[in-house]
Amino acid sequence: MTSLDGPYHNLEVAEVIDETDDSKSIVFDIPDALRERFEYTAGQFLTLRVEVDGHRLVRCYSLASAPGLDSRHKVTVKRVVDGRASNWLNDNVAKGDQLEVMPPAGIFCLSDRQTPIVLFGGGSGITPIISLIKTALETTSRILKLVYANRNDRSIIFKEELGSLLLAHPDRLEIVHRLDDVHGFVDPALVVQEIGPKTDSDFYICGPGPFMDVVESGLASLDVSSDQIFIERFESPDSPVDAAPVDTSGGTVVTIKLDGHETEVSVGEGETILAAARRAGLEPPFACEEAYCGCCMAKVVEGQVDMLHNDGGIDQKQIDDGWILTCQGIVKGNARVEYPD
Ligand SMILES: Cc1cc2nc3c(=O)[nH]c(=O)nc-3n(C[C@H](O)[C@H](O)[C@H](O)COP(=O)(O)OP(=O)(O)OC[C@H]3O[C@@H](n4cnc5c(N)ncnc54)[C@H](O)[C@@H]3O)c2cc1C
Questions:
Q1: Is 80 in the pocket of ligand 1 (CB under 6 A)?
Q2: pTM across the whole model
Q3: Which of 45, 197, 210, 317 falls between 20 and 30 A from 296, CA-CA?
Q4: Helix 126-139 crosses helix 159-168 at what angle (to 10 degrees)?
Q5: 88 Cβ closer than 6 Å to some ligand 1 atom
Q6: How far is the CA of 59 from the centre of ligand 1 (A)?
Q7: Cα distance between residue 22 and residue 238, in whole Å
Q8: The dihedral of CA 88, 90, 92, 93: what is its sign?
Q9: What spacing in Å lies between the alpha carbon of 115 and ligand 1's midpoint?
């Protein structure tokens, strides 16, 4: 384990696989001592911390492998134009390297219903979806349909693996490839058409923001309840620091240690530590802001911090050890928190 008792573990890269021109898979060896800690459910992700140009970046990557079916943990990283971590990972990671990785987390998982499953994947959004498909085919008798949108044929990730799944399960799996350069963009009418009468299905959506909006808008026109819809957002929610003024007259101060520097930040009533840190101009790690990814974890070393909510982003042992999710952390009087070294 690295980082003192922090949430990151050093994992060795067992293999790097070229998937498409702009995406690579990174396969990890999980040492025996960490095997239990890195058990996962299909649809979950790993959080990687990398150092790029002197900045530490924390990013989530969904597991494209399926637990119990694939022997090793695999994430697939697609380059984002001007993206810092995605390009660094594609350009620099090689077999034998060590990467800092948090154990699996996430709630984009299969329900225990027996209804059909319709999955909408766009680009790199296929990563958790292929894990869900492999797992559902193996562990359930559910009928699956994948609608997979890509820019063009060359950008289809896992094309061969999906083809093999289709051959192995022709009666249970249907795959519709949508290519922007051939068919145009997916629109709500197409979403409705592809779902057809299967409105009692579970729906899984993962892909670029505009693609997800279109799928959600198609679903909104159908009689589908919200508990049938599962969404994984790859882009951090557009969450600029709230421009509304924050009343810090209560005088509460949180001392934040981040990347070796300490900053005293005044905190407003009910304001989370993450929000206060960002308002103060710091750049702490975060992704989901909904208490399930664990990216924003920090340790409370003085004072009391209560969490508004925990959706699995942090486990009981970590809480017992003093860790909190800063996106949910409300200080009770002055406090001091330290992000992992
Ligand atoms: C739960 C979760 C799972 C994820 N799983 C995967 C995965 O399996 N594979 C994968 O490739 N990525 C995945 N992502 C996205 C990934 O975490 C990074 O956000 C992505 O690699 C971009 O990081 P970056 O540092 O390269 O870009 P940054 O330097 O952070 O951003 C550069 C610019 O690109 C924009 N941008 C950021 N993210 C995206 C995006 N995803 N698409 C388009 N534009 C973007 C930003 O708005 C910014 O303008 C996942 C994200 C989450 C929250």
A1: yes
A2: 0.90
A3: 210
A4: 20
A5: no
A6: 7
A7: 24
A8: positive
A9: 31
